[in-house]
Amino acid sequence: xxxxxxxxxxxSFLLCLLRHVAAIWARHCALGLTxxxxxxxxxxxxxxxxxxxxxxxxxxxxxxxxxxGALRRQARTPIIMLTARGERADKLRGLSLGAxxxxxxxxxxxxxxxxxRNVLRRIRPAVERLALGSVTVDFRARTVTxxxxxxxxxxxxxxxxxxxxxxxDRIVDRHELLSYVWGYPEAPVTRSVDHAIARxxxxxxxxxxxxxxxxxxxxxxxxxxxxxxx
Length: 230
Description:
Helices cover about 40% and strands about 15% of the residues. It is an alpha/beta fold. Helix 2 links the parallel strand 1 (about 30-35) and strand 2 (about 50-55). The longest helix is centred in the middle third of the chain and has 15 residues, at about 110-125. Mean pLDDT is about 75; it is low at about 1-10 and about 25-40.
């Protein structure tokens, strides 16, 4: 039986997506909403209490954007909108309503999984703040304080630092970062990680050429030594 009123042709496909999501982020659960009447969908979201909703906008009996509004009034669960509509206006409408992401079908599975990871990390970071000496990085507020001059980190730099912070004192290899942060299914030949780490050191380390917090482990990867802010 298709879960939550899925159309028969979409059942196995969405189940595959949700299995991948569960494998990537075991602490969280995802709910797919496609067919079925609107009250039933809202009840499913309320009773299931998911950490993420994948909402198919192309509904057979109602407007997906209206359902989005009903779900938003009900709870602040992050929502990824999924649709076959490719028009720019539809995408802008979804994002302006407050969607956490908007994906157009057909799409690449690895891209979908990378977007899910990013939404879950952004909404519910395991480490909310990180102390690097006198500097404090707030992952939820996306701010850096305690520096002599204003420091701006890109979204990618926040994600790299957060991933290292969640695994502090553990070696994280480049392939792991390329997969988790960049979303690459296989590790390409690239210096992207090294360049990003160099930028983080320049922004956060007292002496970038003699790092105190973000260490290189020869032929293995990187290790962050620090404690979460109290």
